[in-house]
## 1
Amino acid sequence: MPLRIVILLLVSTLAISCSSDSDASESQATEPEQDFWVSLEEAQHQALDKGRYILLDVYTEWCGFCRRMIRETYADKRVQEALDQYFYPVRIDAESSRTVAFQGESYTMQDLALAFGVQSFPTTIFLNPQGEPVALQPGFIEAERFHKMLSFVGSESYRNQTFQQYSQNN
């Protein structure tokens, strides 16, 4: 009888372990793929031509909240619509030595993040069409709040009211 219990426990443990691995691979496989990201160079060129803003998503590979922003916030339909309407979204890996051009200067992604004063991840930076910072928001942002932020900046409401005023009226 004790041997039977040990075998049942082993089989149960194995089943739970396989189930967890399966769940993890499923969640990775179902993580939404956003194809709306553009290069920083393209964003700067298009923003000037079209008068749209640039959104910099500053992230790191190891950052759990960065992955959560991709999975939950950027996957939200309203967020995607606001991005489409007002922004050219760009991702910057704050630990990358890959070179990018910004405002006619060459930077590594890491140096560019430092130049903007990024100290935590994720950090979202809103730039006007000329590439000048409008706002910097560190931390994970829920989809509903992020949608309001995108609309607040993109509609240029930030020019004549606070975000709190905008949020109360919209």
Note: Residues 2-29 form the longest helix (28 residues).
## 2
Amino acid sequence: MRHTILSTTAIALAACMGMSATAGVRHVNALGAGTGWYADDVRTSAGVYLNGTNSSYQPYFQGALASSTADDALIAQQLYFTDTGTASGGGSGVMVMDGTTGNAGKTSVRYYGAGAGIGTLNSSFSSSFRWYSDPYSTSRTVALNFLVLGNNGLKYSMSWLGTGTQINAWNTFSVNADTAVVNDNGWRLYSNGAPGSAAGAAKSLNGWFADATYGSILSGATVVGQGFNIGSYQRYCRVGIDWLESSLINNGDRVEFGIVPAPGAAALIGLAGLAGSRRRRN
């Protein structure tokens, strides 16, 4: 966990060796090829799609929209990382998904890794994440999402909404293939290749695998990416994602979002603590 207290000796040694102080944890503080996390469906308050040169996942647009560094800058206004607690987090490092002043914006982010698919969609899937909901005039529940290459060659977007969101508080959501639909919240399927009325239904993941139309399409399909979104028409909504655990990402180990000290800086902090401890003992 982020708030576990470690000895300064352990921190210094881990930093000097170029390792995370917590085994298995991956820290993410930027978008792009360096982390495998990308913006893919970010829209301005006027509903204009943004395709950044570095921050966007280019295959998502399939050449339909030119990329630009100007769009990178605009994306960074809606999707960014912080450890200050000034936005969505109360002092804990987060990836902020910020709403827009208009009423047609959207923010979406996914882990695509190297772009060859991150795993297979099946009944062994499980995921948990911790997030903060800021007390804006309106609010959104963060959706967990997939981009899936179906067994029929078509791409499908799937989004899961949990229940019981607390505003101005931390929320921890967990889901697996058996998680039941509650208050019409569950996995929803979206695609140009899916009829809207049928795809609009919410089901558990195993429910989709058993579906007469989509079961053979989705079961065992390739998951191109997994991430988060706060939906279209997200006016005055802002959330912060603290961490994610997924059976499809980082071997199931935790992904921590937010700015972390560089290894050299962490080592200096640890050594300074050791020095202070020695002075107090002398």
Note: Residues 30-259 form one domain.
